[in-house]
Amino acid sequence: VMNVCLSTEHPYNHLIETLNDGRIKYFNPQKLNDQRYDKLPLSIRVLLEAAVRNCDGFYTKEEDVQNLLDWQQQQCKTEVPFTPARVLLQDFTGIPAMVDLAAMRDAVAKHGVDPSLVNPKCPTDLIVDHSLQIDYSKCAIQNTPNPGGGDGPSQNQGPSRSAPSRPLPRGGSHCGGQRGTCSKAAACSDPLASPGQPPASVQQIENTPLLCPFHLKPVSETETTLKNQGMELIRNKERLQFFKWCSKAFKNVNVVPPDVGAVHQVNLEYLSRVVQVRGGFIYPDSVVGTDSHTTMINGLGILGWGVGGIESEAVMLGQPVSLTLPQVVGCKLVGSINPLTTSIDIVLGITKHLRQAGIAGKFVEFFGPGVSQLSAPDRTTIANMCPEYNATVSFFPVDQVTIKHFKKTNFTQEKLELLESYMRAVKLFRCFDDPSEDPQYSEVIEINLSSIVPYVSGPKRPQDRVAVCSMKEDFQSCLDEKVGFKGFHISKEKQETRVPFLHCGREYQLAHGSVVIAAVISCTNNCNPAVMLTAGLMAKKAVEAGLVVKPYIRTSLAPGSGMVTHYLSTSGVLPYFSQLGFEVIGYGCATCIGNTAPLPEAVVDAIKQGDLVACGVLSGNRHFEGRLCDCVRANYLASPPLVVAYAIAGTVGINFEKEPLGVTSEGKEVYLRDIWPSREEVQQTEEDMVISSIFKDVRGRMDKGNTFWNNIDCPESILFPWDHKSTYIRSPCFFSKLSKEVPPPQSIENAHALLFLGDKVTTDHISPAGSIARVSAAAKYLQSKRLTPREFNSYGARRGNDAVMTRGTFASIKLQNRFIGKSGPKTLHIPSGQTLDVFEAAERYQRDGIHLIILAGKDYGSGNSRDWVAKGPYLLGVRAVIAESFEKLHKNQLVGMGIMPLEFLPGQNADSLELNGKERFTITLPESLSPRQQLNVNTSQGKSFIVTALFDTEMDIILFQHGGLLRYVARTFL
Ligand SMILES: *[C@@H]1O[C@H](CO)[C@@H](O)[C@H](O)[C@H]1NC(C)=O
Ligand SMILES: *[C@@H]1O[C@H](CO)[C@@H](O)[C@H](O)[C@H]1NC(C)=O
Ligand SMILES: *[C@@H]1O[C@H](CO)[C@@H](O)[C@H](O)[C@H]1NC(C)=O
User: Fold this and answer.
1) Is 846 part of any domain?
2) Per residue in 114-140, pLDDT tens?
3) In what ranges is there compositional bias, type Low complexity (predicted)?
């Protein structure tokens, strides 16, 4: 199960200790008796523990353990291996990985070896969520599988992936009972259906998970979901059957069925363990995943980050991730959080600091007394923001807050105690108040939490931010200033105007700054449960203190999803919202796009009469002048609790510090600070009411599976019964002619250049994702299988079919091949002089037994990671790539497929060597290779030049000699 050799030969046997009366073992790196351990950042201690435990003298060596211990000196200088506790795959990246494994079983069986021995080495969770296309949603949002994207966790693609399983805002249907008018309210329309509105909500949806890591799945098995599942089943039947077979046939594979949740959600809410207990050992949880939100998990003290599909497959096969020993920036949180600050203010404030700090490519680790003020959801939200400041991870070591969070899951008390005593024993548990525990970081950034103050923005543009404490003065200056983004130019004498009016039989007054619209909306920025609960708990305290909201103010509550209503209701705050006039008006983006019911006529008349600058306050994330209502000239965006506060105050011209929010009927002054709920209260309510129901919810869905998944029939065999008619799942030919012995190094003789490329060839050129062009080699293949272009689907969806993916290799219309004058997926078949699709040329060369290489310029293989960037060229018959330089990740991918990455000597390239690409190339390999060995290349034109073989380690050489990782792993079974 683990890469632990349990014989006495494990080099770190002497570090093994036990817990629970000897029943559970663990490696205690403290027994290395090295005082450097106590000064290591905790994230480095996690890497160290994994290196100790997985030390096999092959992938991970004692030297690596020493380098990790010597992190202070070795950071940035050495590469270290990291074997994560688990791999997280989603369906698109899972298919090729699992197909390879299934093919490996066949290959091993051909040699008479028991195929059931072939299983992932690293525990693998595969979450089926991406293939769900919304066929039946009435919303305009369509999700195409992985639109044009790679399989890597690039930040820009991540959100769109998980869009379909997230709450879709729907227009509310019931709009009765609204305040503001004495008569009945106007009908709400579905904002998504409003003509002329840009699909603003797409953006909102895509942003949502960034600030809202934990959320409930809003839909149960409604008719729509059932229909979608039906469609999904038909469309993806072969792939779902294959996944189901994987879940039964392989050990170490856990398949999460469709419709349980998006990858990051399931990871956060279901798979996270803090510690893993396997094979009698306990060790820290850690993960690499092909999901852009993988870094979220660091908020729970679980080290993890995103990798590409091919990298995740390698980890699954037992190869560690190789990383340059990172610098670790200690982010010290000090000071206390300002009372009016919400979780989102804190998250955005910390993110802003980190963005300015320039910490790209480093680890961030939080410490200092301020950390314990952040709840687990706050931490995961911050950790999820890593791509904003390009850190690899933002790690929050485990502490009491983490433990408290896991109490809300199904962790038993016994398990929690085990977890805590283990984490303490290996010094992975932090008490943030004790500075003597603080590690030594590469550098320290200090953030004083009291420097983070709440802002509102407006009055006309969302980018004009105003600190809440200076709101009164700012509004005053807006009245004074000449008309502009921050000015209304109201003459001095008119600034004092008061206009009395009658509303429902009582007299009120309006002035400049009077609030007439107040809308609490839970969308994007404010979907965070803590923020909505702050508003709700404040509403409760306001009502209890005897405060009211003036009845002419149009107040509304748009919770964003039924689940927000659910937790507002279970936490008991909904009635108080309602008493203040904030009634649930529906789930769509109502107010911010102008769908408010009209203001009372008397209010409109009073505004007009006094030429007043009346105000709207809302917690949406966008607004435009006059958008709420023509007669409301000043519009502010504020957090939900501040919306409630300004509604109670009835004006934006208030200094909350100095002036009371209101006066009770008994004449008592109540200040905002009197009713603002404490962070502890909010966090407690969040953990009790939201987090626990989220866990219950996801677990319920998981247990239930769903009717369709359970009814998928699936073969009960050890070998996968490949369906030769399938165009999605095909046994790839990576294992053809697999011999038991490692073949001797194979020289390249008289090879032709398949392609003659320039600089900056990206993975997009090498293995384009997206749609399959009708004139491509892949299209010809699919047509030969009697598919119509409508049924082609994308390259992304066909990653389980090597025939399609090989044909798709270099099929980019942007490919610039020097053999061909213009860009396109073509090349010259040199012997015949014909211009062919790259695949067709390669096929012809292969048929004629001609070796192939590729010539390229600088930065070969940059860009997103793609599964097929190395597999594709391998199946085209490419044996070596000679380039001026390689993107490191891609170089590793080539080695992993047994293709030689060869670098010209510095200063040399195809032009300086006067190569025309049409010569034939011979590269003779010595009996034994050594790292970064120089090799001679001879051309048929009599030229000779030297290249460096970019095998950096012995491991690289071994992989190359075996013909790549897959063949290497397969041979270990022989
Ligand atoms: C944080 O800032 C506040 C207000 O500026 C100050 O009073 C406090 O001393 C600071 N705390 C630390 C630890 O620097
Ligand atoms: C993060 O990386 C991207 C791409 O490499 C770069 O464009 C951006 O400026 C970087 N941002 C920061 C804050 O370093
Ligand atoms: C979670 O805990 C509840 C209550 O203790 C129990 O009924 C349920 O079976 C547990 N579920 C799992 C998956 O352990």
Assistant:
1) yes
2) 999 999 999 999 988 755 443 333 222
3) 158-172
Report the predicted TM-score, pTM, of the whole model to 2 decimal places.
0.84
User: Given the CA of residue 702, which atom of ligand 3 is nearest to it?
Assistant: 13
Cβ neighbour number for residue 798 with a 10 Å cutoff: 25
Q: Count other Cβ atoms within 10 Å, centred on residue 494.
A: 12
Query: What span, in angstroms and rounded, lies between the C-alpha atoms of 455 and 468?
Result: 5
Q: Which of 793, 233, 809 is nearest to 785 (CA)?
A: 793
Q: Give Cα separations from 182 to 178, 603, 960 (angstroms).
A: 9, 12, 79
pLDDT tens digits, one per residue of 868-914 = 999 999 999 999 999 999 998 899 999 999 999 999 999 999 999 99
CA atoms within 13 A on the CB side of 691: 23
477 membership: H or E segment, kind and range: helix 471-480
Residue 597 lies in a domain: yes
Question: Would you give the DSSP letter of residue 691?
Answer: I
> How many Å apart are CA 506 and CA 97, to the nearest integer?
71
Radius of gyration of the chain (CA): 31
Pocket test for ligand 3, best of 699, 703, 704 (most atoms within 8 A of CB): 699
Can you tell me whether residue 448 is helix, strand or coil? strand
Strand partners, 554: 517
Which residues have CB under 6 Å of ligand 3? Answer: 410, 699
pLDDT in tens, 500-553: 999 989 999 999 999 999 988 866 555 578 889 999 999 999 999 999 999 999
Query: What is d(CA 301, CA 292) in angstroms, rounded to the nearest whole number?
Result: 18
Contact predicate 855/752, CB 8 Å: no
State which ligand 2 atom lies nearest to the alpha carbon of 360: 14
Q: Which two tokens stand for residue 930?
A: 């050594």
Angle, CA of 662, 664 and 668, to the nearest 5°: 90
Atom of ligand 2 nearest to the CA of 389: 13
Residues 498 and 590 in one domain: yes
Interhelix angle 400-407/413-425, nearest 10 degrees: 160
- Is there a single domain that holds both residue 669 and residue 753? no
Residues 757-778, buried b or exposed e (16+ Cβ, 10 A)?
A: bbebbbbbbbbbbbbbbeebbb
Mode of pairing for the β-strands spanning 275-278 and 281-284? antiparallel
By CB neighbour count within 10 A (0-12 exposed, 13-18 middle, 19+ buried), where does 658 fall?
exposed
Query: What is the Cα–Cα distance from 620 to 521, expressed in whole angstroms?
Result: 6
Whether 426 contacts 12, CB under 8 Å:
no
The CATH number of whichever domain residue 879 belongs to comes to 3.20.19.10
CB atoms closer than 10 angstroms to residue 330: 20
661 and 772 both lie in a single domain: no
Q: Which helix (H) or strand (E) holds 751?
A: strand 748-756
Are the C-beta atoms of 669 and 663 separated by less than 8 Å? Answer: yes
- Residue 393 Cα to ligand 1 midpoint, Å, equals 27
Does residue 933 contact residue 948 with C-beta atoms inside 8 Å?
yes
The answer to whether 754 and 841 have CB atoms below 8 angstroms apart is yes
How far are the Cα atoms of 172, 486, 516, 519, 669 from residue 647, in angstroms, in the given order?
Answer: 23, 22, 8, 9, 16
What are the residues whose beta carbons fall under 8 Å from the beta carbon of 381, sequence distance 6 or more?
210, 211, 212, 213, 296, 299, 343, 344, 347, 528
Q: How many domains does the structure of the chain reveal? A: 3
Give the domain extent around 821.
Answer: 748-973
CB burial string 616-633: b at 16+ within 10 A, e below: bbbbbbbbeeebbbebbb
Same domain, 668 and 753: no
How far is ligand 3, taken at its centre, from the CA of residue 410, in Å?
Answer: 6
Which residues 6+ apart lie within 8 Å of 788 measured at CB? none
Closest residue by Cα to atom 3, ligand 3, is 410
